[in-house]
């Protein structure tokens, strides 16, 4: 049995609790000792540390309870930032290392955003093992840094105890405590542990921690990207500043004052200028290649290091040991080595700058979250950090302010701009009892509301997490690129060696010169970066664009499958229709007015619990009709209701009810039949035993349903509608919206069977629904699409969620899928074409016929251009606009 920690709200099992306390015969389980100190809602004896009983093995259990990433479940999922990857082969290497960890079920490494998404059994694996696997593969984990003020330390033993407490948390990479400054410097992985968990760990060890730097994960990510970009930029500028004089010295024929220098002097100058370029600007290529070699792997660093290193070593030997080479083979290629490093760094700088834009949608979403909230506690208003808001807090929001968290309006009215969450531009009226969403903007009035979801549970946080998961997932089309990338580098090295041998044996004089040039050129031009970026960059931009439009795509596979759909199955209630019955038509007879008819019927129906009666009452309230009270109310199941209103006998019910009471209706039966033919339910109203009117009640069709279905048909899909309603009603609605085929009177448990049947007939099926009864069908469909205004279970079972709840977003999602897949294919074809054309040309296939031999410098420029082109093409998706055709 699980309990809720009364302070922090964490779910605690007795077996994993740090301790417990008894009060009035009840046991209260705590995740950490520090929690009891803040439990100020109970008597003093409950606060006493003497009544806090530690659980066995408290220290190890507290790690599980207080860690930033909860590890108590059987299955856990982490997003881990990876540092040191330079190409698709690196991503494959890291992926293999993670999959090799016992307990890991799934590992997917995204080269575009440098993150690994890992699903694992928490009983068999932990975050520490995952970090170790990444490092053993020659890469590292991206860590953030923070400082904690430590209070209560008095000696070196205290320092050791605090360090041990912090280092024991999963996700902490380094912790150094300074007794003199009374602070701890902690390097950690934000995705695995947070500052609050560090505070708890320090508190549990008997000391107090105060955050000196409250860093948000998004700020850390931004700083990390900017730091990497600036580092690359510095290295590029350094390499460029040395490469220019290297080129000038190398071009002796064009510059007489250089050619006047002795050759030996020129070569020594070139050596002195080139060595810093390789040692500083290009150092990470060589260290990366060495790490790969140690792990029996090869990546882009290998290609660059072998290529530029060969040119450098050959040139160095020719400079200082010329007697080893015949006179015709004494050449140097310092310019090739230096300029290649400079050009590759230039490509990396441009690529880093472009890649920074692929996640702008996420950054915009995260940036919507306000930093503080105005909370009423103990009768006083105070501004507190957003992270300190608790469920149940009463929060005040004034005009123009952002709503800090999700909640329910307690008092006041206003209009709310929810466009940043739903994509709907028209502000929504909100009053008492209405739900408000965190990060939306209050436009007009002031109001107070109860907080219902805070922190990671808010809709904004869930949207951000959903988009991040989608951006980190892999589309099936990427598997081909991954397979090719895993074999690509070894094949390229083999081709380069074969090229060297052929040119050395059969090429023109000097043999070694031509062999070396072609060897280096093949290695340089065959960069697999473009191949590795082709799919994930498009996925990142596509899912981000979807989030901006109110379309949440859970994974890349759904994004890829959506464009292949051949059939769409629509649930009727809440999807095609509004989902709530409403009065659509009012017909009056025998001189009564519409307002009077509605007032009498609604007054009588106030005592009814029937949904149709509720619709009549709601319609009267919307028209501001004042309702009285009914006497002698009587509800007859299956027929209707009767009673006295304002001294008059009033009856509301179906045709059979009136006929049993002998009320004449022959003249209006045809009218009622016409209403029923339109999917509406006619409710007869009789006053003093005379038919006075008909109220037509129906579940209204959403305004955009017909147009959305028309657009789906234009996209080539066959549209089905599935409902538990009577066939006559279902077919009437189907005619109005243009559905191809209807499945009526379908039981909830039969819905998934109908989807399966269509799949067996060869359709690729998308299912759109909103209710609990739609969940099995959503899961069965090739792509499940949930209406965001529906139930949580429907959204959990779906692949795509439409936040606005509008059917028009379905064709929009399919068009976005088509545009994204088109973009991916362009990238992949371009990458394959580049490599399949570039490698033969670099090997010299054009030389025998045309005398064209590609320079390594040109090859490095082309390689850099290919990566930038792929990322730039992916960024075009940011301008995606749906076609109206």
Overall description:
The protein is α+β, with helices and mostly antiparallel strands. The chain contains 33 helices and 35 strands. The strands form 8 sheets. A 7-stranded mixed beta sheet has the order 23-35-34-33-24-31-32, with helices on both faces. Strands 15-14-16-22-17-20 form a 6-stranded antiparallel beta sheet, with no helix packed on it. A hairpin with a 3-residue loop joins strand 26 and strand 27. The protein is elongated.
- The order of strands across the largest sheet is 23-35-34-33-24-31-32
* Approximate shape: elongated
Q: Approximately how much helix is present in the residues?
A: 40-55%
The main β sheet shows up as: 7 strands, mixed
Helix vs. strand class: alpha+beta
Radius of gyration: 35 Å
First-residue to last-residue Cα separation: 57 Å
- Total count of strands: 35
Please report the number of helical segments: 33
What's the rounded overall pLDDT mean?
Answer: 77
Uncertain runs are 36-52, 54-74, 213-218
Q: Strand portion, in percent? A: 15-25%
List keywords for this structure.
seven-stranded mixed β-sheet; six-stranded antiparallel β-sheet; 33 helices; 885 residues; alpha+beta; 47% helix
Could you provide a short overview of the structure?
This protein has 885 residues and is an alpha+beta fold.
In terms of topology, how is this protein built?
Blueprint: E1 3-4, E2 11-12, E3 19-23, E4 26-30, H1 33-37, H2 44-47, E5 53-54, H3 58-66, E6 75-83, H4 88-99, E7 104-110, E8 115-121, H5 127-136, E9 140-141, E10 144-151, H6 156-167, E11 172-178, E12 183-188, H7 195-204, E13 208-211, H8 217-250, H9 256-259, H10 263-281, H11 283-294, H12 300-320, H13 334-355, H14 360-367, E14 372-377, E15 380-385, E16 394-397, E17 406-412, E18 414-417, H15 419-422, E19 428-430, E20 435-436, E21 441-442, E22 447-453, H16 459-472, H17 477-506, H18 511-525, H19 529-548, E23 551-553, H20 556-562, E24 567-571, H21 572-576, E25 582-588, H22 594-605, H23 611-622, E26 630-636, E27 640-645, E28 648-653, H24 655-660, H25 669-677, E29 681-687, E30 690-698, H26 705-714, E31 718-722, H27 727-737, E32 741-743, H28 751-760, E33 765-769, H29 775-780, E34 783-787, H30 792-797, E35 800-802, H31 809-843, H32 847-850, H33 856-875
Parallel strand pairs: 24-31, 24-33, 31-32, 33-34, 34-35
Antiparallel strand pairs: 1-2, 3-4, 3-5, 6-8, 6-9, 7-8, 10-12, 10-13, 11-12, 14-15, 14-16, 16-22, 17-20, 17-22, 18-19, 18-21, 23-35, 25-30, 26-27, 27-28, 28-29, 29-30
């Amino acid at each position: 049995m699980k309990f809720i920690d009364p302070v922090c709200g964490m779910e605690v099992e007795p077996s994993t609790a740090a301790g417990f306390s008894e009060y009035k015969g009840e046991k209260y389980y705590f995740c950490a000792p520090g929690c009891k100190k803040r439990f100020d809602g109970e008597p003093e004896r409950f606060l006493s540390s003497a009544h806090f009983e530690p659980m066995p093995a408290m220290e190890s259990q507290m790690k599980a309870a207080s860690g930033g990433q909860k590890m108590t479940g059987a299955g856990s999922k982490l997003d881990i930032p990876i540092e040191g990857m330079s190409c698709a082969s690196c991503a494959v290497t890291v992926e293999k290392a993670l999959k090799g960890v016992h307990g890991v079920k799934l590992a997917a490494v995204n080269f575009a955003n440098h993150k690994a998404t890992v699903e694992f059994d928490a009983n068999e694996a932990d975050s520490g093992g995952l970090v170790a696997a990444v490092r053993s593969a020659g890469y590292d984990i991206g860590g953030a840094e923070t400082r904690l003020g430590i209070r209560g330390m008095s000696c070196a033993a205290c320092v050791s105890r605090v360090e041990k407490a912090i280092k024991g948390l999963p996700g902490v990479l380094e912790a150094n405590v300074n007794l003199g400054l009374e602070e701890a410097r902690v390097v950690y992985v934000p995705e695995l542990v947070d500052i609050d968990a560090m505070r708890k760990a320090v508190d549990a060890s008997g000391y107090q921690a105060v955050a000196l730097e409250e860093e948000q994960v998004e700020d850390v990510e931004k700083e990390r990207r900017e730091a990497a970009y600036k580092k690359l930029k510095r290295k590029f500028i350094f390499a460029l500043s040395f490469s220019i004089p290297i080129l000038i010295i190398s071009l002796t024929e064009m510059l007489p004052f250089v050619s006047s220098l002795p050759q030996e002097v020129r070569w020594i100058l070139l050596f002195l200028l080139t060595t810093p370029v390789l040692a500083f600007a290009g150092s990470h290529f060589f260290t990366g290649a060495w790490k790969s070699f140690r792990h029996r792997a090869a990546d882009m660093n290998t290609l660059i290091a072998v290529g530029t290193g060969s040119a450098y070593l050959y040139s160095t030997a020719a400079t200082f040991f010329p007697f080893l080479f015949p006179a015709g083979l004494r050449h140097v290629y310092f310019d090739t080595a230096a300029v290649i490093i400079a050009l590759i760094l230039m490509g990396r700088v441009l690529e880093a700058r472009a890649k920074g834009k692929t996640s702008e949608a996420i950054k915009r979403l995260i940036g919507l979250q306000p930093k503080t909230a105005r909370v009423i506690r103990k009768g006083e208003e105070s501004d507190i950090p957003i992270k300190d808001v608790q469920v149940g807090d009463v929060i005040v929001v004034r005009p123009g302010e952002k709503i800090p968290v999700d909640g329910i309006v307690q008092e006041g009215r206003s209009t709310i701009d929810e466009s940043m969450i739903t994509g709907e531009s028209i502000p929504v009226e909100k009053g008492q009892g209405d739900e408000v969403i965190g990060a939306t903007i209050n436009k007009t009035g002031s109001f107070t509301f109860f907080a219902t979801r805070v922190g990671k549970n808010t809709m904004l946080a869930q949207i951000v997490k959903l988009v991040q998961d989608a951006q980190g997932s892999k589309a099936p089309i990427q598997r081909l690129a991954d397979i090719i990338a895993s074999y690509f580098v070894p094949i390229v090295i083999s081709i380069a060696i074969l090229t060297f041998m052929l040119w050395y044996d059969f090429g023109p004089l000097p043999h070694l010169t031509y062999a070396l040039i072609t060897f280096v050129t093949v290695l340089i031009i065959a960069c697999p970066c473009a191949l590795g970026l082709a799919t994930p960059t498009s996925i990142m931009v596509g899912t981000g664009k979807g989030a901006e439009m109110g379309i949440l795509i859970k994974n890349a596979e759904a994004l890829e499958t959506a464009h292949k759909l051949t059939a769409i199955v629509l649930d009727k209630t809440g999807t095609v229709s509004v989902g709530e019955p409403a009065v659509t038509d009012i017909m009056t007879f025998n001189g009564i007015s519409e307002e009077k008819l509605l007032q009498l019927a609604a007054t009588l129906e106030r005592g009814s619990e029937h949904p149709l009666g509720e619709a009549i009452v709601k319609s009267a309230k919307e028209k501001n009709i004042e309702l009285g009270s009914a006497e002698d109310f009587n509800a007859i199941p299956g027929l209707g209701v009767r009673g006295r209103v304002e001294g008059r006998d009033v009856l509301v019910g179906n045709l059979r009810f009136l006929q049993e009471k002998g009320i004449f209706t022959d003249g209006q039966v045809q009218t009622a039949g016409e209403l029923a033919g339109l999917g509406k339910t006619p409710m007869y109203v009789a006053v003093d035993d005379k038919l006075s009117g008909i109220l037509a009640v129906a579940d209204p069709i959403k305004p955009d349903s017909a147009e959305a279905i028309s657009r789906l048909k234009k996209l080539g899909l066959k549209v089905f509608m599935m409902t538990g309603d009577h066939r006559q009603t279902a077919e009437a609605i189907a005619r109005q919206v243009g559905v191809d085929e209807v499945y009526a009177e379908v039981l909830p448990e039969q819905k998934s069977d109908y989807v399966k049947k269509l799949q067996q007939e060869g359709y690729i099926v998308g299912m759109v629904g909103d209710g609990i009864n739609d969940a099995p069908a959503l899961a069965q469909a090739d792509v499940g699409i949930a209406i965001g205004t529906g139930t949580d279970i429907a959204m959990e079972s779906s692949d795509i969620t439409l936040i606005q709840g509008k059917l028009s977003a379905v064709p929009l999602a399919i068009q976005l899928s088509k545009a994204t897949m088109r973009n991916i294919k362009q990238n992949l074809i371009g990458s394959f074409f580049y490599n399949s054309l570039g490698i033969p040309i670099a090997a010299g296939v054009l030389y025998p016929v045309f005398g064209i031999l590609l320079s390594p410098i040109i090859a490095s420029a082309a390689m850099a251009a290919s990566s930038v082109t792929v990322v730039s093409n992916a960024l075009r998706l940011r301008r995606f606009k749906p076609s109206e055709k």
